[in-house]
Write a structure and sequence with these properties.
- The structure holds two protein chains of two kinds.
- Chain A folds into three domains: about 70 residues, Beta Barrel (Elongation Factor Tu (Ef-tu), domain 3); about 270 residues, P-loop containing nucleotide triphosphate hydrolases (Rossmann fold, 3-Layer(aba) Sandwich); about 130 residues, ATP synthase alpha/beta chain, C-terminal domain (Lysin).
- In chain A, the strands form three sheets. Chain A has an eight-stranded mixed sheet, with helices on both faces. Chain A has a six-stranded antiparallel barrel with strand order 1-2-5-4-3-6.
- Chain A is built from 17 helices and 16 strands.
- By secondary structure, chain A is an alpha/beta fold.
- In chain A, α13 runs antiparallel to α14.
- By secondary structure, chain B is of the alpha+beta class.
- Chain B folds into two domains: about 120 residues, N-terminal domain of the delta subunit of the F1F0-ATP synthase (Peroxidase, domain 1, Orthogonal Bundle), CATH 1.10.520; about 90 residues, no CATH class.
- Chain B is built from nine helices and four strands; from the N terminus they run αααααααβαβββα.
- A four-stranded mixed sheet of chain B has the order 2-1-3-4, sandwiched between helices.
- In chain B, β3 and β4 form a beta hairpin.
- The chains are: A alpha/beta, B alpha+beta.
- The interface between A and B is medium-sized, with 34 and 30 residues.
- β1 of chain A pairs antiparallel with β4 of chain B.
């Protein structure tokens, strides 16, 4: 194909001829002071709270504080190029982000500008960043499971589609890893994922993007990145932008998953913004409305009713604690907003229990209804058994002589703990989880040495997949442990144990 | 009046919005009480003091407006120097300003008073920025158009800005009416780029999976 220069010229010429410039009317103001990512402006007498504004150099801003004589504007971009006396004009629009299929597989900043060098994001759709969460009548209870692919979570703190489950823990306890595994496990489930990196190191974000790409998860994932080098306003808006992008799909009847990594850094960015705007500080110097800032964000995670398409948005907010202090301001706030939390402990992490989930204090308030029936049947007593095991273990450390039954209970407990360990980036299908936990709970691993449990589990999955695929398929299809399937499973496990014994 | 005040207070300089609000309050009160006291043109004395005295004798301005001179001393200066020459009403106004520590706002109050009186008379200032100096014809045309459309008597403040290329920008209060060639070219550029990008994207979509990255 050859291009003809005059053809192109004529197209442009026609475009110019058809161009009818309108007289542009706008409210304007002037910058009186600027610094630290915010500007104070005069004029703009009709500006609305939350309205998008434009500085004379094209940088966008947002009317944040409407005061008697001036308007406090947060600058969404480079504030070093804005000077005192610059003109600022209102746009009459709310701050919005591009949304749509074009964003899938892309890494964008909170304003929707691409950061991945794959060219502009071209989509005709956009959506306001701030959006009123669905009301009571527009929702329905959480019923469908969202499989994380992590045994300890799917068995004991199950997450449903439309739920808000907090991941909380100290630094370096594997919070992001759980979120990433969950995203990886959504492959081929039709769940669209949004990963919001807020106040993270640029290298960590790049690492996450690379892992998603390698595992083919980027095809159904949008990464919204505001690194710690970005100005505070950009970090503050990142979760709202991510929520807006997911909402677009949700209102089309699709299922979505949003990870906010992490909200404690977003709260810090909001604190900076509020203090610079001279809003009065409260506890830990956070502004009074930091609770509202998080609650209105997390309320947007819903399971819509069938008239609205039945789409859902599941939110996995992450909060980092200091020295396990969950009674600090932001952790208590977010714990009270969410429908449960997954609590990670560094002690467990360094003991080698990974994911380092403390099953005693981790809860899911609504996920039980959504749990896979088969899983519910076998994991029902798991939490209590583990708690009993912990007690026994503490008792056994005193060096007391134990009777046979107690010793057997202890041994099984050690093997269950071992079974709940899982390597990173290795999410398991729920059917495989059911098989493994069933085998552990019914004592099929009792003869396996504790340090061989993980390896044997891998062999078991391979055995089931290659030699008992029909049972596995049935388990997936029924999503429940019927007597028939249970019988097949027992037979398969007996065969496996026999094979292990013969190998010696 | 507006040309006079702009001599020592250019319109482009930014005023502290807080101070401006206070000055507006004083100017408005001065105007209202002048009406109640039967003073016909209160701005005359104020203008004369600021423009003829303070501007001509900067040392006197420093003395009267400076913070280093005490309140009682300033009151004494007003009593001895200004009060015998002025009306009692104006001298009282100065005394109030001195007592409240707002005498340094006198020039600002003067300019605000000018603007308030213009507004009371149905006039408003309109900033006109054009690429070339306005001809008399276009000036009257602009004034007529503004008068008929917005319903006030415009006072044009003209400025020439060659970077507009053509056309003009009118500003009434906080509202800007932009018909400059610069803005139109910018808009046209945006549209052409957007169209080209869409062409490229749709061309690419034809060969790839529509939902792929």
């Amino acid at each position: 194909m050859k291009f003809k220069a005059d053809e192109i010229a004529s197209v442009i010429q026609k475009e110019i001829e058809d161009f009818r410039g309108q007289i542009v009317t706008a409210e304007v103001g002037r910058v009186i002071e600027v610094g630290d990512g915010i500007a104070r402006c005069t004029g703009l007498s009709t500006a609305m709270s939350g309205e998008m504004l434009e500085f004379s150099n094209g940088t966008r801003g947002l009317a944040f504080n409407l005061e008697e004589n001036s308007v406090g504007v947060v600058i969404l971009g480079d504030y070093l190029k804005i000077k005192e006396g610059d003109e600022i004009r209102s746009t009459g629009k709310l701050l919005s982000v591009p949304v749509g299929d074009a964003l899938l597989g892309r890494v964008v900043d909170p304003l929707g500008n691409p950061l991945d060098g794959k060219g502009p994001v071209l989509t005709p759709h956009s959506r306001p960043m701030e959006w009123q969460a669905a009301g009571v009548a527009e929702r329905q209870p959480v019923r469908e499971p969202l499989q994380t692919g992590i045994k300890a979570i799917d068995a004991m703190t199950p997450i449903g589609r439309g739920q808000r489950e907090l991941i909380i823990g100290d630094r370096k306890t594997g919070k992001t890893a759980i979120a990433i595994d969950t995203i990886l496990n959504q492959k081929d489930t039709g769940v669209i994922c949004v990963y919001v990196a807020c106040g993270q190191r640029g290298s960590s974000v790049a690492g996450v993007v690379e892992i998603l790409r390698q595992n083919g998860a980027l095809d159904y994932t949008i990464v919204v990145a505001a690194s710690s080098a970005d100005p505070a306003p950009v970090q503050y808006f990142a979760p709202y932008a991510g929520a807006a992008m997911a909402e677009y799909f949700m209102y089309q009847g699709k299922h979505t998953l949003v990870v906010y990594d992490d909200l404690s850094k977003q709260a810090v960015a909001y604190r900076q913004l509020s203090l610079l705007m001279r809003r009065p500080p409260g506890r830990e110097a956070f502004p009074g409305d930091v609770f509202y800032c998080h609650s209105r964000l997390l309320e947007r995670a819903v399971k819509l009713n069938n008239e609205l398409g039945g789409g859902s948005m599941t939110a996995l907010p992450i909060v980092e604690t200091l020295e396990g202090e969950v009674s600090a301001y932001i952790p208590t706030n977010v714990i009270s907003i969410t429908d449960g939390q997954i609590y990670l402990e560094s002690d467990l992490f360094w003991k080698g229990i990974r994911p380092a989930i403390n099953v005693g204090v981790s809860v899911s308030r609504v996920g039980g209804n959504a749990q896979n029936k088969a899983m519910k049947k076998i994991a029902g007593s798991l939490r209590l058994d583990l708690a009993a095991f912990r007690e026994l273990e503490a008792f056994a450390q005193l060096g007391t002589e134990l009777d046979k039954a107690t010793q057997a209970q202890l041994d099984r407990g050690y093997r269950m703990v071992e079974l709940l360990k899982q390597p990173q980036y290795g999410p398991l299908h729920v059917a495989d989880q059911v098989v493994a936990i069933y085998a552990g709970a019914k004592g099929y691993f009792d003869k396996v040495p504790v340090n061989k449990v993980q390896e044997t589990e891998r062999q078991l999955h391979e055995f089931i997949r290659t030699e008992h695929a029909d049972m596995r398929d049935k388990l997936i299809a029924q999503a429940a442990l019927s007597d028939e399937v249970e019988g097949m499973l027992k037979k398969a496990l007996e065969a496996f144990v026999a094979r292990l014994a013969s190998k010696g | 009046m507006s040309e006079k005040s702009s001599k020592h207070r250019p319109d482009t300089a930014l005023e502290d919005p807080g101070a401006l609000a206070v000055a507006t309050m004083y100017a408005r009160s001065y105007m209202t009480s002048a009406v109640q006291n039967g003073v016909t043109s209160p701005e005359e004395e104020l203008n004369s003091l600021v423009d003829d005295v303070l501007l001509a004798f900067p040392e006197f301005e420093d003395l009267l407006l400076s913070d280093s001179v005490g309140r009682d001393d300033k009151l004494a200066i007003v009593d001895r120097v200004i009060a015998p020459k002025s009306t009692e009403f104006f001298a009282n106004f100065l005394r109030v300003l001195i007592r409240h520590g707002r005498i340094a706002m006198l020039p600002m109050i003067q300019s605000v008073l000018g603007r308030l009186q213009e507004e009371a008379a149905g006039k408003r200032r309109v900033r006109v920025r054009s690429a070339r100096p306005l001809s008399n014809d276009s000036r009257t045309q602009i004034c007529d158009e503004l008068r008929s459309r917005l319903g006030f008597e415009p006072l044009l403040q003209e400025a020439v800005d060659a970077s507009l290329i053509g056309g003009m920008i009118l500003q009434v209060g906080d509202t800007v009416y932009d018909s400059s060639l610069r803005s139109r070219l910018k808009e046209l550029k945006g549209r052409l780029v957007e169209k080209a990008l869409n062409e490229i994207q749709s061309g690419r979509d034809r060969f790839s999976h529509p939902e792929g990255d």
